[in-house]
Amino acid sequence: MADRHVGIRATGSYLPERVLSNADLERMVDTTDQWIVERTGIRTRRIARDDEATSDMAAEASRRALGRAGLDPKDLDLLVVATVTPDMPFPSTACVLQERLGAFGAACFDLNAACSGWLYSLDMAWGAIAGGRYRNALVVGAEKLSAITDWEDRNTCVLFGDGAGAAVVGETPRPGFISSCLGADGRWGRLLYLPGGGSRHPASHATVDGRMHYMKMEGKEVFKQAVAAMSSAAEEAIRRAGMRADEIACFIPHQANVRIMKAVAKRIGVPFDRFLVTIDHCGNISAASIPIALDEAVSDGRLKEGDAVVLVAFGGGFTWGAMAVRL
Ligand code: COA
Fold this sequence. Notes:
The protein is globular. By secondary structure, it is α/β, with parallel strands linked by helices. The chain folds into 2 domains: 6-174, Peroxisomal Thiolase, Chain A, domain 1 (3-Layer(aba) Sandwich); 178-326, 3-Layer(aba) Sandwich (Peroxisomal Thiolase, Chain A, domain 1), CATH 3.40.47.10. The chain has helices at residues 22-26, 33-40, 54-69, 93-101, 117-130, 154-157, 205-209, 219-241, 258-268, 279-282, 289-299, and strands spanning 6-14, 18-21, 44-47, 78-82, 107-111, 137-144, 162-171, 177-184, 192-193, 216-217, 250-253, 308-315, 319-326.
């Protein structure tokens, strides 16, 4: 069974209704629309309602993907949610989602590789199905980053948003997944992290007073590492695919900063107009960024069946990865 073709059968995504603009942020912290646009490329991002959790957004995106694939949730045998903002530490958001969808035949788990999480999950689903022990996987990236954002810290609060993207992964008539290349380096963990609420610093009045339940970031160093890791991962995925960069219809990078994406394009020698950009209206949605961008481009016809794309991610850990995929 190891030579069966595996690929993405359908995608779906969901963005919450509420739009947070740069003008709104100007009223919250010492920032300007001009600074945010010039330094990040972000104009608006979506923010979930107070009563809307990660699994709620995941359920919306999942239903759309399953509907397009024409797949009954009962036929899923693997359900993975990539997230750093689970509904709660346990049960997993994947188990919460399973109940919402009625996907009771599926093994369920969350995967945390920060912003690279959806790509990691996609690679795992490919392996699981190619190996012959699973048939239909739902791979979801879903985040409510507004819940772990320090809305008093202008260095981070302008960057992030909420949303979810999903893909149904299964057997396809011709090869979908072509190559993959994942990596990590835990020595950089302290440059992008959330210190409180785990076993190191369990939630307490002191952790809350110390704002330890919000993410912390050394933006400049993260920027440099992101450019280097995403460039080499993309090049390696293309090399492993036995392709040339000019055969790739579209690059779908993690949406962290438009300047990071431009620097990656320059480094790998690809015109920036072949990079998909959603950060202007989404901000950085961590594990949900790539599946949302992919779904947008498939839905509006920018990407078509047969197109070769390279997905490339970078995130906390540090983690990174790239995959060459034919749609
Ligand atoms: N509005 C106005 N000024 C701001 C600001 C904001 N929202 N945020 C930071 N600044 C200020 C800084 O305080 C600094 O002021 P100073 O020179 O007086 O100290 C100045 O702008 C420049 O800050 P700097 O950190 O050098 O800016 P930058 O060009 O590196 O851009 C980031 C900052 C965060 C946008 C950029 O470093 C970045 O995108 N890093 C990667 C982040 C990321 O991708 N994280 C997720 C990875 S998955």
